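PROTEIN DESIGN WORKSHEET
SECTION A - STRUCTURE
LENGTH: 428
TOKENS:
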């Protein structure tokens, strides 16, 4: 959902199609990387295709996942250069009512608990300003940092002061020099996209006031593992965090976690709260320790759990294909609701194309009238469902399933049914 960040730090580039270009863990530098899941050559998840370009060559890149046996970080072993991945960026956070509500609640918490009058609040990868808009007129200074030029422009037009740049230690120094130290720095759904994690956290530490707070959200590995959310793996997500490697990462830059909270969005998200070591807030050691114990119980630091995960992913693919083929053979028509990045991982890995589904619909105008990458399924607006009736809707944006099914209540009332693919294919 966010752009990548240069430089690559410990990442060693080897080059060559299909050849891993990451040979060292991006947190601890260890070369002990256990590859456990290979999703195959896959096009970029957000590289939707205009109809007039459907015959052009479509590059694909390895999508393999590995575990660092030293610090426990799960990560991709192939990184697509950011200038390739993000030449056209189409994700706008404000599209989803669920996310608008989620960020409004976070903004209220920041204002109530951490940001005093006149203090500086900086959001990294602020997208179209969906969170910071909630702080306009609230007696705090706000600044977004957003590398996508088109999205930063939209944010500025909406009144959210936004710097069009990548965040790194150099950017942090410039902001501090011009704006002063930040009382709060926020980074939602971006930490997983960062190649040079050490430089990023160093930048956060240098920007924060001595009593400042860093708040970040990212998909939580324990939920990904427990709910078989393999489709959240795509090239933009370089790291898949459990708590143990996060604590090590921040400790290396003189910071410490003092609280963690689980969030329901995106299929399971972890929100962390960090400060400079020795900061004024007492750590919730019991909560953090309990979460570390649960990660150990799940086996998230060893190879065996992930090898089983990969086997279960293969079973899910077989079950989903059997379900769709059976419905198709029985004369049923199937369409797709939602064309998120995760959905394109699932479609390409399972090889679901126009032979099984009629079309896809999505509320984002930036995806409509484009083909899905790799599988070449046309995406329309939701009104297509009224024009071309189907019997089943395969919900690829399953993390928004409640919102989608509420929007499409008339579809179910008319006899239509929903298919949820994760963690096991099922009809709702």
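SECTION B - SEQUENCE
RESIDUE ASSIGNMENT:
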């Amino acid at each position: 959902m966010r752009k990548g960040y240069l430089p690559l730090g410990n990442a060693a580039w080897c080059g060559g199609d299909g050849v891993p270009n990451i040979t060292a863990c991006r947190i601890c530098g260890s070369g002990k990387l256990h590859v456990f899941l290979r999703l195959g050559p896959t096009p970029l998840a957000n590289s939707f295709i205009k109809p007039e370009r459907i015959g052009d060559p479509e590059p694909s890149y390895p999508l393999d996942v590995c575990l660092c046996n030293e610090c426990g970080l799960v990560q991709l072993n192939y990184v697509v250069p950011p200038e390739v991945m993000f030449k056209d960026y189409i994700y706008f956070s404000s599209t989803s009512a669920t996310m608008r509500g989620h960020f409004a609640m976070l903004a209220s918490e920041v204002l109530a608990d951490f940001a005093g009058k006149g203090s500086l609040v900086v959001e990294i990868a602020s997208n179209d300003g969906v969170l910071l808009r909630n702080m306009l007129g609230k007696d705090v200074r706000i600044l977004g940092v957003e590398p996508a030029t088109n999205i930063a422009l939209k944010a500025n037009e909406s009144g959210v002061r936004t710097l069009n740049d990548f965040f790194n230690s150099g950017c942090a120094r410039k902001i501090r020099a011009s704006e002063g130290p930040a009382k709060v720095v926020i980074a939602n759904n971006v930490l997983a996209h960062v190649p040079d994690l050490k430089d990023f956290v160093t930048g956060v530490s240098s920007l924060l006031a001595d009593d400042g707070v860093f708040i970040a959200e990212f998909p939580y590995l324990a939920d990904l593992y427990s709910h078989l959310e393999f489709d959240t793996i795509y090239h933009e997500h370089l790291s898949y965090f459990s708590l143990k490697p996060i604590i090590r990462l921040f400790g290396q830059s003189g910071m410490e976690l003092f609280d963690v909270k689980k969030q329901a969005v995106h299929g399971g998200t972890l929100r962390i709260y960090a400060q400079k070591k020795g900061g004024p807030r007492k750590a919730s050691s019991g909560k953090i320790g309990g979460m570390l114990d649960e990660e150990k119980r799940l086996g998230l630091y060893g190879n065996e759990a992930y090898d089983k995960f990969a086997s279960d992913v293969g079973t899910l693919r077989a079950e989903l294909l059997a379900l769709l083929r059976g419905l198709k053979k029985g004369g049923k028509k199937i369409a797709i609701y939602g064309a998120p990045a995760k959905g394109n991982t699932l479609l390409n890995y399972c090889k679901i194309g126009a032979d099984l589904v009629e079309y896809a619909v999505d509320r984002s105008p930036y995806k409509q009238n484009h083909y899905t990458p790799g599988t070449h399924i046309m995406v329309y607006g939701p009104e297509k469902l009224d024009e071309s009736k189907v019997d089943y809707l395969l919900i690829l944006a399953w993390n928004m399933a409640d919102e989608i099914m509420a929007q499409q209540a008339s579809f179910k009332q008319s006899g239509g049914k929903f298919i949820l693919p994760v963690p096991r294919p099922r009809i709702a």
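SECTION C - NOTES
The domain at 93-301 is CATH 3.40.50.150 (Rossmann fold).
Residues 1-17 have pLDDT under 50 and may be disordered.
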